[in-house]
Amino acid sequence: MPHRLRIGLTGGIGSGKSEASRHFASLGATVIDTDIIARELVEPGQPALAKIVETFGDDMLDADGHLDRARLRDRVFADSAQRAQLEAILHPSIRARAIALSEQAAGPYCVLVIPLLAETGADYPLDRVLVIDTPVSLQRERIAARDGLSAADIEAVLASQASRAQRLAIADDIIVNDAGRARLRSEIERLHDRYSALAHSHKA
User: Fold this and answer.
1) pTM of the prediction?
2) Mean pLDDT score across all residues of the chain
């Protein structure tokens, strides 16, 4: 039985991935967000949370036994070796869960939102990769408006992610999201038609 058409959606911080994924969902595509899966995997009682505590210490938990995300983020943000340790704990389970969900998906195709696809090189079985691309200057503006970060913090976040060129290098399809929500939605609708046609031929 042929597998369902899988579209990997990625992009840098502030690129518009969330808006794009919401519009794909409104058009009938199944959207699987690996950030949501990651949050589910570190709920109390989950093996991944136990492994994080074993690796990084009991102070990664708050008073209620939940993961202290801010503390963990501060711990690994500036340390690439520790960030790699965290990714080694989480990414195999995230990948396995995302693939399992994609196999149960309804609709003509499914969209896997994978923010760190270019950074981790995760081996997802994707048929196409869609990059939501945004000029870095516009990323800075959006991050400042949305998250209230200082200029220095914004630069640190951008430096921790793949470059624009690295993301574009893995793209099959590109939407340049620099002209407002209406243009973004129009581009998504165009790709929805294309992906639906591809899904139909994929199953034939």
Assistant:
1) 0.88
2) 91
